[in-house]
Amino acid sequence: MEIIDLSIIIIYVVLTLFIGIWVSKKASQGLDSYFLGGNNIKWYYLGLSNGSGMFDVSGTAWMVGILFLYGAKSFMFMWLWPVWNQIFVMMFLAVWIRRSNIMTGSEWILTRFGDGRAGRASHFIIAVFAIISTVGFIAYFFEGAGKFMTIILPWDLSWFIGETLLLSSEQSYALIIIVLTTIYTIKGGMFSVVATEVLQYLIMVIAGLLVAGYTFVTVADVDINAVLSPEWRSIFFNNELGPHWSDKFQAFNDLIDSEGYKMFGAFIGMTLFKGFFASVAGPVPGFDFQRILSTRTVKESAYMSGFTGLVLYIPRYLLIAGIVVIALVTLVPEMSSNPGLNGGDLEVILPKVINNHIPVGVKGLLLAGLLAAFMSTFSAFVNSGPAYIVNDIYKKYFKPEASNKHYIKASHIASFAVVGLGVCMGFFADSINSLTLWITSALYGGYVAANFLKWIWWRFNGWGYFWGMVAGLVVATLQYFLDQNKGNFAEDTFLYEVSHVHAIYLFPIIFGVSLLGSYLGTYLTKPTDTEILKSFYKNVKPWGWWKPIYTQLKNEDSSFEKNNDFWMDMFNCAIGIIWQSSMILLPIYLLIRDYPKMLLALVVFLITSIILKFTWLNRVQKIPN
What we know:
mainly alpha, 27 helices, 75% helix
């Protein structure tokens, strides 16, 4: 680490802390100011903040690894999250959510099921889910940041008591970054988060452009073509993945065979199945939900969601593709000669490239950018998670009448508690990949069924929601513990076989159990009060099976019209997914110098943008403020 690189990082950290603390006075006016910025932040700042929050180090390290190994097809691995969620939010869900005028995702549930016993049960379970998912994501960041910083920075920060290791160097680095980020996040709430994330986004964009430019200048076309095969460049696939690498790099083909994605057709089918239901279910109660609720108007919530996708993917993949191209021409010979490929740990490619193949100055800016990526995502979760503890549990059930100062102090304590739990969980996580799979395939599997039904079915009630969520969370947690302990089961036993099934293929089981809990909970209890359903449907106007409620509203007001936009919304989502995918593929093909495919991706991006201008943007502009 050269002095100039270290200086850039120190300047960035000091500037971030200064801005975060400087704007913190605005957060002291109440919970609305602390968690939602008082609904007074402009939509494009929230969009930049939301995009910055999704640009995390752990995810970037994972994306570098899968792009390196699988090539252009790797953009479909993003459907695991699923990244479509942002498209569905952009097209219709942001408008539905923002119309509620509340503070958190679980408080929103009360507008759907009421404030009776059933409504409170559903409200409580979604708050618990939000807290669990926030803790899980903090553990995910803890694991990724520690691994990344240890390889990059030269100092060994391991702590020993006698000969007993107390903290590894990875854990020490992660703790330092987490403490610094927690300070300004807790101090300033949403205002500090958004202000620092806009700065962090600009730094990440500069880092991505610098890496892409450096790659173009230093890596020759002939060096790239000597490594890449036609299959690596192609986005098309059969039911089973073929060799992505030439015979002299057979170790990489062997690694693909062992990763669990060989039956690619089945994998994509499962991600499509999961992606649709998970996306219609809406965003999990986290930082993107908070950004939607923080917008000034319903119309601006849609603008913000669309802007997030536009500003996120191209800069992020300029950085990712630039790192991968450098790795392809510098690390492939070394890695392919090692049959173990570092145990298949492709997450170390990102820090290895930065450490050994990025020049002075650019390295400091890139490290500042990746540190910004970590801090922005982490701060977004630290701001959103405690909102559920304070607003939805503490304020509602324990201390309904207290001063703003009291609630903000409670928010500070809740923030420290959430961070502490996440860090503890991070100590016991095997890898970034294990946490990714648990969050995306297991935990979200328990969320999807109940939250899908809440939009589209009038008869679905609070108890159905509660038991659907409980069933899903129990099965998801069981799956996680089986996965974490799969090395302890004897071969050829039932537990051994189940623990070794890829998490994405267990999604239908988790979804099915949750769906069963939802139906039983709904049909064994009475329906939600009709007046609550009428209020919800009239305000939010979702499409789906709402005929009895629609009929009553129509009888009361002959001018009332139901939502007939289902097919238009689905068309826009399909176009939006293609639009989103083109923004991922465009920088990849640019940096591997495959100009015909790059131009095709650009044409697809322009055509889909024009279509969405007429089918989505023009409709959003007509929404009243």
